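Technical note accompanying the year-one report. For the benefit of new consortium partners, we illustrate the data format agreed upon in the data management plan: each record pairs a sequence with a structure-token string. No post-processing was applied to the example shown here.
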Amino acid sequence: MKDFSLDIYRELLEKLQQKGYELISYQDYCRNTDGIPTRYRDSERRFVILRHDVDKLPENSVKTAQIEKSLNARASYYFRTGESGCYAKSETRLPDAIRTIVRLGHEIGYHYEDMSLADGDVEKAYAHFLTWLGYFRQYYAVETICMHGAPTSKWDGKDLWRKYDYKALGIIGEPYFDTDFSDVLYLTDTGRCWDGYKVSVRDKIPQHQDEWTAKGWVWHTTKELLKAIEEDRLPKHVMITTHPQRWTNDRAGWLKELLAQKAKNIVKRIIIRR
């Protein structure tokens, strides 16, 4: 079974459920840590937060959402703006993908990169953020947002919140600010592997990575991760972030993503060394 196929993604979720993990959205996590009762924080129950960054190919996200629905799992899907150029017209009709994912019972949120799109102009970036938050709220009562890393941009999207407060807009959570990473292990497929923090510019949690590495919570392939789950070597609380464009059973699409990611990783290494 190929890594980053839909088949192995299903196996990953099934294995987690077999080991007693509840598969939840980020909205579920935030609602129960900010509100009453505090269902997940400092809990002995096992859970995995399923987060998806929809950087492109939203039709792939529909397929992962269907798999999750079939397993009674709930996930979060963060969409970029149509004007960012990430969604080619030939790929999908973005609203259709959003509607389908919402209909399947999942959360959607805004994968914001307004500082980059506004070339660092904070006021312009905030106005842009409000416009697109309103756009996504046409389809879902958006309560969580998530920064897009934009590795080739000099602007960090999170800097928008140095001046403004997203919680004043009814936003209850942003993963990089509102997740207790002293309690929740962060795993991401950035770089098309599970130890991609080595080539990631912003999609990483550096203040905790050394601790996780010392505990052996580092895996490269999905098969290695599956073995760790089977052997109960995963902590009780985990956030798994995927980019659904790289999870496919289509051979041509799978190979295209593999080659593209190898090229991206080279660029990221150059950026990190600067």
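Partners are asked to follow this layout when depositing records. The beta strands are 22-24, 47-54, 76-79, 107-112, 145-147, 185-188, 237-242.
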